[in-house]
Amino acid sequence: KFQDFVRWHSPKDWTPDAATVSTDEFAPRGRLSARMRHKGNTWIELWRNAPRCAASKQALIFDPVVEGERALHHLETVAASALFAQLTRCACAAILGIYASTDACTMRANATTVNAVKIATDTSSALFTRGEDHDALTVEDYERAVFAVQLAERATTRAESLHKKFPDAPPALLDALLIAASKWDTEREINTMRAAHRVLTSECHSEDARSALRASRPSRSARSAEYLIRAPLHGSMPHHRLHVLVTDAHTRVSRRTSAM
């Protein structure tokens, strides 16, 4: 019946009314809205004039076989750059969605973690919205998005870890630790060695905070050195730096790019 169609397609045009009289005991009690009862209503005319045909005999609006073949054809012919751009969009959206749903951003939210996730989301959205044409995106554009996601990941994992390691610590201490870690991330991009020597305990002015830190007894990490080697301005690799990490067990060298 037309009433059933309206209840499904446009619920706001159906007003339930238990006092409505109907000859069909199974019919829903209610009435159509004024616009649906109006004479000459387009929906009523279409309903009356539409041919009666069983759903099994109607042409499919969505054919899964045809759409599947189209998807396979797209994957066979899509350019590598376009596929990479699409996968990157999906990956960033999925990753940031996971971070935003963690306790660090919901139940035990703090400004530092929430702000890091928000910045990563805004950066990725602005970048990929601007770069609808995948050819317009450069390696530097992708690096900015990935770097923002990395900062969000660090902020989220730090917050989750601190809440598990310091379940009874004062909230002010946790906030101080997260803020200090955020500053460390910023300094690390400017001066790795200076960031490596950041000492948090000297910034704890509360006895409760100092007690919580002393009770944790963090283990010392292995002896290591970390530094950057900047390429000459007019050398063969301008605007590049070599990131070197030396520990007792291994030495790792990786290339990083940044604007001079």
Automatic annotation (TrEMBL):
All residue ranges annotated as the Rab3GAP catalytic subunit conserved domain in the record: 2-76
Tell me where it resides: Cytoplasm
Q: Name one GO cellular component term.
A: cytoplasm
Q: Show which residues constitute the signal peptide.
A: none
A GO molecular function assigned to this protein is: GTPase activator activity
Where the protein is mainly located, per its record? cytoplasm
Coiled-coil ranges per the record?
A: none
Pfam families membership: Rab3-GTPase_cat
Keywords of this protein's UniProt record, alphabetized? Answer: Cytoplasm, GTPase activation
Q: Could you say which protein family the record assigns here?
A: Belongs to the Rab3-GAP catalytic subunit family.
* Matches recorded under PANTHER family: RAB3 GTPASE-ACTIVATING PROTEIN CATALYTIC SUBUNIT (PTHR21422:SF9)
Q: What is this protein called?
A: Rab3 GTPase-activating protein catalytic subunit
Species this chain originates from: Ostreococcus mediterraneus
